[in-house]
Amino acid sequence: MSWKSKKCMREVVLKKKFKEENSMFKKKVTILVVLTVIFCLTFGIVQGFAEEQKKEVKITICALRDISTETALKILKESDFEERTGITVEANLLEFAPMVQAHKMDFMSGAGNYDIVAIDQPSLGLYVTSDWVAALDFYLNDKSLPSIDREDLIPALLEPCGIWEGSLYAIPMGSYGNLFGYRKDLLKEAGFVDSAGNPKPPATFKEFYEYAKELNNPPKVYGTALYAHKGEYLSYDMGSYLWSWGAGFINGSDVNLEDWPKYHVAWDTPQGIEALKFYVRFYREGLVPKDSLIYDHTRFTEAFQVGKVAMGLMIGEAVGEPMENPDKSRVRGLMDYAPMPGKLRADGSIAPPIPHIGAHSFAINKDSKNTKEAFMVLEFLTGKDIAKEYILRGGKPFRFSHFFEEAYEKYPHMKATRNNMPTGKCRPNIPEYPAVSEIFSTALHGVLAGEGDVEEIMKAAAKKANEEILKPSYPEYY
Fold first, then answer.
1. Are residues 413 and 319 part of one domain?
2. Which residue of 283, 313, 374, 406 lies most exposed, with the fewest beta carbons within 10 A?
3. End-of-domain residue from the set 423, 438, 455
């Protein structure tokens, strides 16, 4: 065989070998690529799952800025709740009117920016019938979720503040109710004492007015104060006066007057007009600070804290801890509390006091994307497990477990608060009430500001509320 033939054969063999090696290399590369892809996919899935497992859920609350909500949130932040559950809690705390506006903007957009919202007692019907909040019954039946200890919640608050047509929609977060607060030192100086020389608060509204005139010494101190900021503040403040005089807001809702048409406003009855005139009298005679017309939660409380006010029907937010806090109050140790005055009857007897009670309750936004986690936050903040710490740090009671000996010792007003609840009255919570209240408070605020005659303006407001709000909803009563 010639060398050329041998060379050709060698080349054929080499080419064949190269082809086989090249084919094997390609197979190895393909296998390596496949394995790499499988590894990457597997790692990505595992990593994604791990990240999902570690991912925190954020629950955002839009609520009233008050001592109860602030206290419960502080306890949550100081606990292991967020670490244990992976739920981060954020809160947007506002005054009442801005809070309601923030809620409505979120509800109308459907964005679900707020997972938990605070509902004032008379707005429950509006929030439920507008389909803004979710019923909580489903979560109560979920055994994987903590119990709300429903039997520990005070029915006088839970029913008007959380239940609508048999279903639970909200749980009280704090409470409010009128107590009569007074400066012990000022009553003693003025000679308003009992036989033992102890300060004696007024027993009737007539005495309340007389005390206010005697104690009034502006600008150093005023006889009393009104919670008269335009809006629901003013409606709230007026409630106890209307009820004590035998009137109300809406007949068939907060009152049942036999001689007045049902589902008509009830502040323009003769008794209602009398109550309104009595209330306005405090302002027009200079017995209250002029800036009472802008008194919201904060300003009303501060007026008492700085010693500007001698006595008054105090909102629950202002009672107790705010007056005894040495960092905020100049009247520490000087305040005491009693049941609110009663109406003097024609026969000389005194009608039982009718304190205004209620609560801002927490509900879950129907558009929340994390309703289960929202319920867990809601349960913690309103729960029995933090009851003792919550009360001793200044929160307002809404559970039976909130009343205990140590609390009575620290806050003597707690006994009067508990006695208020069974006899107290709430504003209407029918869906039409907020619109009716807006007409009422706008008119009364104008009267206080000097815009005209009490009876004329308030009767015109009653006609407007009946025709524009109540008649369309309850035509059968017109």
1. no
2. 406
3. 423
How far is C-alpha 110 from the chain's CA centre? 21
| pLDDT, tens digit (0-9, with 9 covering 90-100), for 61-104 | 999 999 999 999 999 999 999 999 999 999 999 998 899 999 99
CA dist., res. 443 & res. 437, Å (int):
10
Q: Where are the alpha helices (DSSP H) in 203-296?
A: 205-215, 232-244, 270-284
As a whole number of angstroms, the distance between CA 213 and CA 215 comes to 6
Separation in Å, CA 180 to CA 271, 310, 384: 22, 11, 28
What is the H or E stretch that residue 371 is in?
helix 371-382
* pLDDT at residue number 39: 46
User: Residue 312 carries which side chain, given as an amino acid letter?
Assistant: G
Domain extent for 188: 177-357+429-477
pLDDT at residue 29 greater than cutoff 90: no
pTM of the model: 0.80
User: Residue 215: which residues within 8 A CB-CB, separation 6 or more?
Assistant: 186, 187, 190, 221, 223, 310, 311
Number of Cβ within 10 Å of residue 194's Cβ equals: 9
